[in-house]
Amino acid sequence: MIWIASLGYHAELLSYDEAIAYCVSAGKKLQSMYHSWDDMFTNYTQGYALWAGEDPENEENESFQRIKIYQWLKLLPKSPYSIDWSTNL
Fold it and tell me: Please, is 83 exposed, middle or buried when counting C-beta atoms within 10 Å of its C-beta (0-12, 13-18, 19+)?
């Protein structure tokens, strides 16, 4: 939903405020379903690997690469994943 809202904004189909409202709504739903960034990403990765028919431990697979990118992003000083999961949206 967040990705689609951003596309809608860039295509000028949604105003900035409309796109943000969709993103906040999606963020609140995610917060209610998962306990942390890691919890959400683990579930996302498992679903992606299942959908793609991949072994996420195989270094040649997209799902493995997505895990590595997430791990790398978490280490960045200004990582979006450094924001507290329970931030009030």
Answer: exposed
Q: What is the rounded CA–CA span in Å between residue 64 and residue 38?
A: 15
pTM of the predicted model, to two decimals?
Answer: 0.81
In three-state secondary structure terms, 9 is helix
**Rounded distance between C-alpha atoms, residue 87 and residue 47, angstroms:** 25
How far apart are the C-alpha atoms of 89 and 72, rounded to whole Å?
25
- For the segment 63-69, the average pLDDT, to the nearest whole number, is 95
Q: How far is CA 88 from the centre of its chain?
A: 17
**What local confidence, expressed as pLDDT, does residue 13 receive?**
97
**Mean predicted lDDT score pLDDT of the chain:** 95
